[in-house]
Design goal:
By secondary structure, the protein is an alpha+beta fold. Helices cover 37% and strands 30% of the residues. Strands 1, 2, 3, 4 and 5 form a 5-stranded mixed beta sheet that branches. It is globular.
Length: 87
């Protein structure tokens, strides 16, 4: 497995209450979502709005990517939703 994150883009999705981002295993794109609650575990002072949650994501990107790698290693799926228990 060689999961990497060359694209720094991320998107807040209010209907799904998460931040989405993407990783790649060779040429396969893997979609990840981080639940709002997980972002609050990482940054308890984050407000429940787009700017604050994206900021919490950005400030914890390395930790989120490590959790994504670990979870992907267990599941090997093309879509993974990270919750607070993944941190």
């Amino acid at each position: 497995m060689s999961l990497n994150f060359p694209n720094a883009s991320r998107t807040y999705e209010p209907r799904k209450q998460c931040v989405s981002f993407w990783g790649y295993d060779s040429t396969a794109e893997i979609s990840f979502e981080v639940e709002d609650e997980a972002l609050h575990v990482l940054c308890p002072t984050a407000e429940r709005n787009e700017d604050s949650l994206l900021g919490a994501f950005d400030n914890n990107r390395a930790r989120i990517e490590q959790a994504a790698i670990k979870t992907y290693g267990r599941r090997r799926q093309s879509y993974i939703r990270l919750s607070s228990k993944d941190f």
